[in-house]
Amino acid sequence: MSIQSFLNGVVVGVVLGLVFAPERGEVTRKRIAQRVSDLSETIEDTYDELSEKFSQQADRIEGMAREIAGTPSYTADTHLKFGN
């Protein structure tokens, strides 16, 4: 294969890419950046929700364990209510 054939193939590829490209590179980069940002926000929101659910479940399990063990459950509400 000659250099000329290779260069002709590159030129044809570039021209076809420009003709059939759905959008300009700048637009594509902005769209990708927006989707990455949206995904990042979704991941952060999901993490926050799961963290809260896990915390609630841990509190619930701790309460059940204390109930089974026969010791009173101590929470911030108990402390504020009774001043302990």
Describe this structure in words.
The chain has 3 helices and no strands. By secondary structure, it is mostly helical.
Q: Given the C-alpha coordinates, what overall shape results?
A: rod-shaped
Structural class: mainly alpha
Helix % is over 70%
Biggest sheet record: none
What's the Cα radius of gyration?
30 Å
Low-confidence stretches: none
The total tally of domains equals 1
Sketch the topology as an H/E string, one letter per element.
HHH
Indicate the proportion of strand residues: under 5%
- What is the number of helical segments per DSSP (H or I, 4+ residues)? 3
For the secondary structure, the number of strands is: 0
Q: How many angstroms does the end-to-end distance come to? A: 87 Å
Mean model confidence by pLDDT: 79
From the structure above, extract its key features:
single chain, mainly alpha, 3 helices, 0% strand, rod-shaped
Secondary-structure blueprint:
Layout: H1 3-20, H2 25-69, H3 76-82
Summarize the structure.
With 84 residues, the chain is mainly α. 83% of the residues lie in helices and 0% in strands.
